[in-house]
Amino acid sequence: MKITYKQKLTLSFILIFTLFTAGVIVFEQYGARRYKTEALEERLDAYCDIVYAYISERGAAVTGTEMDSLLAILPANLRLTYIAADGKVLYDNLFPDPGQLENHSGRPEIAAAASAGQGYDIRESASNSQPYLYYAKYYGNAVMRAALPYDIQVQHFLKPDNAFLYFIVVLFVIGLLLIRYVGGRFGNSIQKLRDFSAALELEGGENIAVPLFPNDELGEIGKSIAGNYKRLKDSESKFAREREKLLQHIYISAEGICFFAHDGKVAFYNGLFLQYLNAISPDPDLNNILSVDAFAPVKDFIAGGAGDNYYEYTIRERDREFLLRLNRFDDNSFEIVLNDVSEQEKTRRLKREMTGNIAHELRTPVTSIRGYLETVLETPLNAEQQRKFTEKAYNQTLVLSELIRDMGLLTKIEETPDKFDFKSVDLHDVVEKVRTDLKDDIAANGVTFRNDLPVGTTVSGNESLLYSIFRNLVDNAVKHAGRDIDVVVGKIADGGKTVAVSFADTGRGIADEKGLSRIFERFYRIDEGRTRENGGSGLGLSIVKNAVLIHGGDIAARNRDGGGLEFIIHLPV
After folding, report:
1. For residue 220, pLDDT beyond 80
2. Rounded Cα distance, 13 and 6, in Å
3. For the chain, how long is the longest CA-to-CA vector?
């Protein structure tokens, strides 16, 4: 007996509805169980945080006696295990001697916590053969694990509620009745659906031999619908791929991009555009971005109507510079692209200033050398006078050599910091070496030098750079602080991770606070004339600061209350 379309349709819907209902039931049961599991995990997570914080305050070697006060406020059946990063058990409240427990790095929950931050498992304990629900959490240097016995109480807690199941069963019965009713009525619409499909095919449909239901009207309908549906899906798929590529490009773009509709309304923007917009305007209206004052030229350009479709200008806000580019499309929609060019502009200005400073610094000694040599070559001089002018020319070559040396060191610090090897260095020994190397200059200027750094004041650094720091500071004090002064280098603080060192003199100090804030700039001099008389490249303190920064430290200068200048240097241990 041939099964009618109505019967086929009804049976098919019943089968689909049955599978759907079964899927909903399975999904709900799984979801309910997972929800309760997550709730239980959250409790165990909180226990782990509490216990880890308690152990961290007292050190990793906490004893069972020290844990009693904490265990008193936690569930009695809770098992707690503190495990080192290598899997060694450091504490377990069920085992007074954790050393008898094997390494736990292979436990499923421990391995999961080490890789993902948290781990969960239900299994039988290898230590006491009891089933547990385990939860482990990784804290960087150790793993804290909390477990509850997987007994009837826990199993009952995790068991899903059957109320929803009963509701689905009732709904399923009602659905079957509705399917029978709808199936009967749906059969009467098949003829109209076929006529509609035929009309659609006449307007460009493609005949595809993929019958949805053989030997009945739906076979014809299926061919037409399948063809149109295939073309539609192909178009949608192509559009989705192109759209995804465009969005991916925009999201990862190093430019801030925003698209606008023809009426100026925002259609889409990436995160970098929003970041730049907040830098330009403290409280921008995201629904009307063009209301930002910095975008006034954009509004004027758009209002201009016909003309060029490209426009760009620079926005300067809060010491930052942004290059804005506007592209207008055929439908009068447009895009704005923002680029942060602050660093490029800063680099360009620095290069220009550096070139000018270098030329200025080289001009004086080169002019002096030329003048002295011209005097020797063109003027009749006795032997003593010739030697005097030759010595002056030689001294200027030393100034040039010092300038070139300092520029080379400064460039190496800034451009190739990875070329310096770091090791443990005793600052006391470094300062003593500086004292020995500069003892003649120190004595000639009547300077009393005292190294109060304790022997064994070690830091992690490059010995050559650390030597350069203190040599430049001593040289700066000897040449510019005045005669008959005291210079003291001492340790003022030890923060565990850093050492604070004071370098102080009793000289003239720096009266101009503005000048004090600029002493680490390249070629900056407080007193141009006096500094040139005493020599120096103007790069010493700039080298000091950059050498400190490459060590991950910091340096600051201040005038001392009793007179003189003090540098405070923080260096990592």
Report:
1. no
2. 11
3. 137
